[in-house]
Amino acid sequence: MVQYATAETISSYCQYFSKHSLDPSSIENGHASILPGAQAFSDALSASNAICTIVRDWPTNSIIHTSPFIIGGLLAPATIQMLAKTFSGRASNLAEKASVSLRSLVMAIEHMAEYWGLCRCILSM
Q: DSSP code of 114?
């Protein structure tokens, strides 16, 4: 996906995603060649947003009955949302959305940690 990403490239990817999500026709195909990892980051952020939507709609009382291995599936979206929140810069709409999504993921993991020791260990890291 994004092997040698720096703060500057991730910031560029976040700006690309923000522009692309607001007006997909405004991004030309030539721009993706300038930022080769932008499309991969955009796809990962879109997938992360879909997972966050599922987590937000997850009934709170059923979270603790979920397998603790589900936490592995929540760590990658949480990391992607944290990157988007941290490096979105001027794209404040993206930063705000990432902050809300990250909060919902952390709350789900905290709920799981009340019941599962594995989740508590991961949270303590």
A: T
